[in-house]
Amino acid sequence: MAAEALPGAAVPLELRRERAMVCVEYPGVVRDVSKMLPTLGGEEGVSRIYADPAKRLELYFRPKDPYCHPVCANRFSTSSLLLRIKKKVKQRAATPGAEDCPQVKFEMEILGTISTTYKFQGMSDFQYLAVHTDENGRHTSMYDKVLMLKPEKEDFFNQELPLYIPPPIFSRLDTPADYFYRPDIQHREGYNNPPVSSENLIGLSRARRPHNAIFVNFEDDEVPMQPLEAAVQTWKRVCTNPIDRKVEEELKKLFEIRPIWSRSAVKANISVHPDKLKVLLPFMAYYMITGPWRSLWIRYGYDPRKNPDAKIYQVLDFRIRCGMKYGYTPNDMPVKTKRSTYNYSLPITVKKTPTQLTMQDLKQGLGPSGSTNARKSIFNKYKVKDSVYIFREGALPPYRQMFYQFCDLNVEELQKIIHRNDGAESVCTERDGWCLPKTSDDLRNAMSGMIRQALRSNRPALFSSPGKAEEGKEQLPYEYAEDEEEDEEEEEEFKPSDGSENEMETEILDYV
């Protein structure tokens, strides 16, 4: 209810707490609300962003342009009121010789409380318009040629057009930041830079990470017999409690049972903090970069190139095949990717601050959750499911790209392919190792058929009519559907580094 007040007078107002509102500080002069709302995605779009605290509100100054890059607003918790004030001026009848003195009254009303406010504090991203500029400097719009707004004939797709491939986003940050470039290093007179053996050398002035891993190529003549002294000292410095010594013994037993392991397989068999595992693995094994045992950790002194029995430990880079010719698209696959460019920190998302672990946490073998709770679950806290390194018939892999060792393919048909030349291994090649040529290709074809059959049996709607396929997308009847939520919780605390989409390259970057 509005209250009237004269200038300079105090007026009590009724506070309507039941009307909670959201404030958007719009970076512009709004003259037509019906034109302003579409720039924010409409009421539905604003409501969707408001329901997710991790999202930022996007404003498109050209909402009908699909190539428009938005400016983003940050979300703030506020304690504000929306106050409406009306000024009423009543003109009095003018009398001869008297000054015109109108009567002024104010009507005030509190419309509601504001607990959330969106403020546009960042810079707008660069814009790239669908415009072609000819040699004479004339601009021609290409929107009607690159956007298909209605069903078109074949001529539409065969027309000659200038190359137009705009990036989906130009900048990942919308706030200015200081780069703090390092000044050129001043060396003593006569100093020469060391020779560079690779064209792609990163971080000449950055200190190497003290993990001290030994990398071996397939062409190298010999393999290391023992770790570097620095690797031994680093592990001794970190290994300060009984839990660490127990983990060391467990890993030693694993390499006695099997001389070659992937990091994923190790994490599925023992519980150890990922940062501590980076220090422990170089203490136990060396890392093969190329050849059939690439991306694997090999026990010191063991050379798989001289032992035909090592063929069961060779690696298989397997990727789930997606596409219409296989009966399903990537969006239909109920298997998530390990990492994606769409998961990077973009201006439209709010980046969560990761929990920082101190050296004291690593020495104690505990995470930041507190010693009491951590000690109770320390033996299983960092363990992952064995599906990250074992392939079973009828079950889907947890990721679309997997690195399996041949011995972890628990399917009789696949083992027959691997052991086709048992006893007849003559030479170890970099591509196929001790196996027959094209063995990896045969394994991938057989595994792809098994995955397709698993999808067909568990989600028949995916391979039927399009209408039924939409209904089948909601439910995942096999066991992996229930495990996915647990995996999300584990990955939220320990995500893989964003070094590369290739797991092997990412692991190497951890030690360089």
Please sum up the structure shown.
It is built from 15 helices and 15 strands. The longest helix has 20 residues. The termini are far apart.
List low-confidence stretches: 203-208, 352-357, 364-372, 465-502
State the share of residues found in helices, binned by percent: 25-40%
Give the C-alpha Rg. Answer: 32 Å
Largest sheet: 5 strands, mixed
What structural class results from the helix and strand content?
A: alpha+beta
Termini Cα gap: 69 Å
- H/E element string? EEHHEEEEEHHEHHEHHEEEHHEEEHHHHH
Which key features would you list for this structure?
elongated, five-stranded mixed beta sheet, 512 residues, four-stranded mixed beta sheet, alpha+beta
Q: How is the secondary structure organized here?
A:
Blueprint: E1 3-5, E2 20-25, H1 33-36, H2 42-51, E3 57-59, E4 71-90, E5 103-119, E6 131-133, E7 139-141, H3 143-146, H4 154-158, E8 215-216, H5 229-238, H6 242-257, E9 260-261, H7 263-269, H8 274-284, E10 285-288, E11 296-299, E12 315-319, H9 359-364, H10 371-377, E13 391-392, E14 401-405, E15 409-410, H11 412-418, H12 439-458, H13 466-472, H14 480-493, H15 503-509
Parallel strand pairs: 2-5, 8-10, 13-15
Antiparallel strand pairs: 1-5, 3-4, 4-5, 6-7, 9-11, 10-11, 12-14
Helix pairs in contact: 5-8, 11-12
Describe what you observe in this structure.
The strands form five sheets. Strands 1, 2, 3, 4 and 5 form a five-stranded mixed beta sheet that branches. A hairpin with a 5-residue loop joins strand 6 and strand 7. The protein contains 15 helices and 15 strands. The longest helix has 20 residues, at 439-458. Helix 5 runs antiparallel to helix 8 and helix 11 packs antiparallel against helix 12 (439-458). It has helices at residues 33-36, 42-51, 143-146, 154-158, 229-238, 242-257, 263-269, 274-284, 359-364, 371-377, 412-418, 439-458, 466-472, 480-493, 503-509; strands at 3-5, 20-25, 57-59, 71-90, 103-119, 131-133, 139-141, 215-216, 260-261, 285-288, 296-299, 315-319, 391-392, 401-405, 409-410. It has 512 residues and is of the alpha+beta class.
